[in-house]
Amino acid sequence: MIRSFLPIVDHHSTILILGSIPGIRSLQAGQYYAHPANQFWKIIFDIVDEPFDECYCNRVSLLKNHSIALWDVIASCERKGSLDTNIQSPIVQDFPAFFSRYPGIHAIFFNGMKAKKTFDQHVDMPVKCCPVMFQLPSTSPAMTRIWSVKREAWKAILCWL
After folding, report:
1. Strands laid side by side in the 68-72 sheet
2. Measured between alpha carbons, how far is residue 90 from residues 40, 116, 136 in Å?
3. Residue 25 and residue 149: Cα distance in Å, rounded?
4. What are φ and ψ of residue 99, in 5° steps?
5. Are 137 and 146 in contact (CB under 8 A)?
6. Which residues are part of the catalytic machinery?
7. Which residue range forms the structural domain that includes residue 8?
8. Tell me: the pLDDT tens digits for 75-119?
9. Residue with the larger pLDDT of the pair 39 and 79
10. How confident is the model at residue 59, as a pLDDT?
């Protein structure tokens, strides 16, 4: 059984980025998107026009400084390896409680198809609690879409900051 991390969030957060669940490298490091080939952090720094920083503490600060929360749809699951296709028996996060605690979040951006699909299948929230939702291309190393295409898609976040 693997477990996700606590969210990176505060009461100033206005958007939420959701992944599926951390991969092996991230779980080992105790950090979101720790695999060096994952493009998440490079994309985030690029779209907010900040110089890239390797320090995880500074990465977390960048998110908070831009009112961005980060979490995973899946709280725990069974999975061999890091591929989302290997996820079995997912248990999702308590999103109604999360949105009740952080009412300023008004948009969700899903990092990839698995996060959005799992959310849609397993999360049942009243319409009034549901912010606007967007699926973005995965930043995973397994997703080989051209950098410029991913970057342009992820710029959608800027409209909600």
Report:
1. 68-72, 15-19, 107-111, 132-136
2. 23, 13, 21
3. 25
4. -70, -25
5. no
6. 38
7. 2-160
8. 999 889 877 777 779 899 999 899 999 999 999 999 999 999 999
9. 39
10. 98
> DSSP for the chain?
-EE-PPPB--TT--EEEEES---HHHHHHTSTT-STT--HHHHHHHHTT------HHHHHHHHHHTTEEEEESEEEEE-SSS-GGG-EEEEE--HHHHHHH-TT--EEEEESHHHHHHHHHH----GGG--EEEEE---STT----HHHHHHHHGGGGGG-
**What residues contact 1, with CB distance under 8 A and at least 6 apart?**
76, 77, 78
Task: Reply yes or no on whether the pLDDT at 147 is more than 60.
Answer: yes
Q: What is the pTM of this model?
A: 0.93
Query: Is the CB of residue 33 less than 8 Å from the CB of residue 26?
Result: yes
Query: CATH number of the domain that 103 lies in?
Result: 3.40.470.10
The domain total for the chain is 1
Q: Give the pLDDT band of residue 67 (cuts 50, 70, 90).
A: very high
Can you read off the two tokens belonging to residue 67? 């009112």
Q: How many CA atoms are closer than 13 Å to the CA of 70, on its beta-carbon side?
A: 19
**Of the candidates 2, 151, 139, 142, the residue with the CA atom closest to the CA atom of residue 70:** 139
